[in-house]
Sequence to fold (151 residues):
Amino acid sequence: MKFERAAATLVLVFGIAGAALAHSGATGIVKQRMDKMGEVASQMKVIARMLNGRLEFDPAVMEASATEIADHASGFEPLFPEGSVSPPSEARPRIWTRWDDFRDQFATMEVRAGSLADQAASAQDPSDLKNAFVRLGNTCKSCHQDFRQQK
Fold:
């Protein structure tokens, strides 16, 4: 039950249902990063559904999803040029005053997603992956709390 609540919270954090509306009017680098974040959210949703039994567990699919998240995390930094906060961007200006902290969030995301991918490759039971998924989701949640405008 605790995991199901955590997974539901993570899905809400990513705002999957409202992503299309949030991206309305976005152009250039802001649209590129919003699209990448949307791709991460989609992969997190796939993993969450597998872990809570709403989608058949497939270690190869979970590994691919986590690997895609790790790949995106390694490429986010250039998508945040200083001052790119014009609407509909949800980026907070503190990104650039706390750049090292912000960059560390993506590094942590990459490591945790990579760890989840590695564990998924040999997993027999999805419950073995829940803690790794929650740690990954907590990284996303923490970054959003610190560096994303509240809706």
The CA atoms of residues 13 and 141 lie 6 Å apart. Residues 12-21 have pLDDT under 50 and may be disordered.
